[in-house]
Design goal:
Blueprint (H helix, E strand, L loop, with lengths): L2 H11 L1 H9 L8 H5 L3 H17 L1 H4 L2 H6 L1 H20 L3 H15 L3 H4 L3 H22 L7 H5 L1 H6 L8 H17 L4 H14 L10 H23 L17 E5 L5 E5 L6 H14 L12 E2 L13 E2 L5 H30 L4 H16 L10 H14 L1 H5 L2 H12 L7
Antiparallel strand pairs: 1-2, 3-4
């Protein structure tokens, strides 16, 4: 086994700790086992090894041409590292340092884009997940909450983008798991969206004869501009998409279990975002930290969640809206660089790809840029890891050079060792 093959193996091994780390915050009423293994110091050591593997694999698993294309990711990573270092000077107590470490994990995860440029790496990751991680889900089910099912199975959600290329049996398996996740907790709106939207995007494959590149390019630009436009309309108090009661008058609710195992009604139209935007922007204005943010060591001042702050400062270190976390930790500069990464990745995928599948991935990446303004936890998790995996595919010359048949052959190699890329 040469160094490159060993590096790929090491990358696949990181999937198990990341999978477990993903579901640690979501124990069920029977989840004492999950709670017992959630020891912060031990997990920090494990995650440190994971990132050591990631960064040490860059030169082995990518060539200069790929690294040159990833310049925008490099700039974003550099700025995040600057924010991390800045946080070391801002942190004042144990809780600040804990927040700095935890938040920096998500900020450094874009390194994944560097090590998945070659088809063999992603194929190996997916093969390892299907063979070893997916079967373990049966063991974890009793110990995690219903909404955590989708977090653990998130790689399946991304695989839905390639649904037309799957064999009949795997289509059935993947769609069955999708239905299971959706029905397990209809109140987990993010899971419902992340598992159904990829199916919609996969239908582009069947419309490829009538959807020209220019049409897909227009859709790509719209998805990039839309959240900025909606944000501007909300700031101007013209239209707030989160206030669904203003334009949807029918009842829309579901029943779910709370942390005590009790059944409660949940309003699916409830506005759970506007107040977060207000608090984040008010904090930035109060401390004049618009451009560089407060660093990953600090959060925003919150009247709603501030009583949970152990420092007594009334801060919330992170929230459900990805773009607001980036803004809080790394300022407008971080947000602009984040936008440029998504713009460049999707542009290359839509305009410079020989196969429809990477074009689909590119459009889905722009959707995830839009969704970052609604809900997306930018933490170390399977969800965020595989998002950057998809971004890496968009930048990859190898993936974009494939024909439709070659890409389908690559997908089938995930499940059949005989078809594995060399």
């Amino acid at each position: 086994m040469n160094k490159k093959q060993q590096a790929i193996k090491n990358i696949t091994y990181t999937l198990l700790p990341i999978s477990i780390y993903t579901i640690l915050p979501y124990p069920s009423t029977l989840g004492n086992v999950i709670t017992l293994i959630n020891i912060v110091v031990i997990w920090w050591l494990i995650i440190a090894v994971v990132f050591l593997i990631f960064f040490s694999s860059i030169k082995l698993l990518s060539d200069k041409a790929d690294r040159d294309l990833l310049l925008t990711v490099k700039l974003y990573l550099f700025w995040n590292f600057f924010s991390l270092v800045r946080g070391c000077f801002i942190a004042e107590n144990y809780w600040d340092w804990k927040g700095l470490v935890y938040n920096s994990m998500g900020l450094l995860l874009p390194v994944i884009a560097y090590i998945v440029c070659k088809p063999t790496v992603i194929q190996a990751l997916y093969s390892y997940y299907i063979k070893y991680i997916l079967p373990l889900f049966i063991i974890f089910i009793p110990f995690i909450s219903n909404d955590a099912y989708g977090y653990y199975l998130m790689p399946i959600g991304y695989l839905l983008l390639f649904l037309p290329s799957l064999t009949r049996n795997w289509k059935i398996i993947v769609l069955t798991l999708t239905v299971f996740v959706v029905l397990a907790d209809l109140g987990a709106r993010s899971n419902v969206i992340k598992f159904t939207v990829p199916i919609v995007f996969s239908l582009i494959y069947y419309l490829r004869g009538i959807l020209s590149t220019s049409i897909m390019e227009s859709a790509r630009k719209l998805l990039i501009i839309l959240p900025i436009l909606l944000f501007s309309l909300a700031i101007a108090d013209v239209f707030n998409i989160y206030k669904m009661d203003d334009y949807i008058h029918s009842e829309s609710s579901t029943t779910k279990q709370n942390e005590f195992g009790e059944s409660v009604d949940e309003d699916l139209k409830a506005d759970t975002r506007t107040f977060i935007y207000v608090e984040v922007l008010e904090t930035a204005n109060k401390y004049n930290e618009w451009w560089v943010g407060r660093s990953p060591a600090r959060g925003y001042e919150s009247q709603w969640f501030g009583d949970e702050d152990d420092t007594g400062r009334g801060e919330r270190r992170s929230n459900e809206v990805s773009i607001l976390n980036i803004f809080t930790w790394s300022g407008l500069i971080g947000v602009v660089l984040y936008c440029i990464v998504f713009y460049k990745a999707s542009y290359l995928a839509v305009q410079h790809s020989n196969n429809i599948y990477i074009k689909i991935v590119g459009l889905f990446v722009t959707f995830r840029w839009l969704y970052a303004w609604i809900e997306d936890f930018n933490v170390l998790s399977l969800n965020y890891m595989f998002l950057w995996l998809m971004i890496g595919m968009c930048f990859s010359k190898s993936f974009r050079a494939m024909t439709n048949k070659e890409f389908e052959y690559w997908v089938q190699g995930i499940f059949d060792k005989r078809l594995r890329a060399k």
